[in-house]
Amino acid sequence: DPILCDGIIALEFEYVDAEGEMRDRWNSESAESDYATPRLVEIRLTVGSQDRPRTFSTRVLLHVFRKAADE
């Protein structure tokens, strides 16, 4: 099988809510997130070796989202 990316150290996600607050976890089916989906997702990929890591990141704006239950 082909390898898409060798030497992955970390793959991390952060989520941004409607107020611009960042969270490291998100569950759209829970009251903790008011049953809403995030407005933006930040993705970070760290590759290489422990002594020479390289981190790449991008932010994805979600144009389609579910608003909070009380909105």
Task: Kindly describe this structure.
By secondary structure, this protein is an all-beta fold. The protein is 0% helix and 44% strand. β3 and β4 form a beta hairpin.
Would you spell out the secondary-structure blueprint of this structure?
Blueprint: E1 8-16, E2 22-23, E3 40-49, E4 52-61
Antiparallel strand pairs: 1-2, 1-3, 3-4
List keywords for this structure.
71 residues; mainly beta; four-stranded antiparallel beta sheet; 0% helix; elongated
* Overall pLDDT score: 92
Helix content: under 10%
Q: What would you call the structural class?
A: mainly beta
What gross morphology would you assign? elongated
Please summarize the sheet with the most strands. Answer: 4 strands, antiparallel
Strand coverage percent: 35-45%
Strand order across the largest sheet: 2-1-3-4
| Total number of beta strands | 4
Short description:
The chain is mainly β and 71 residues long. It has no helices and four strands. The chain is elongated, with a radius of gyration of 15 Å.
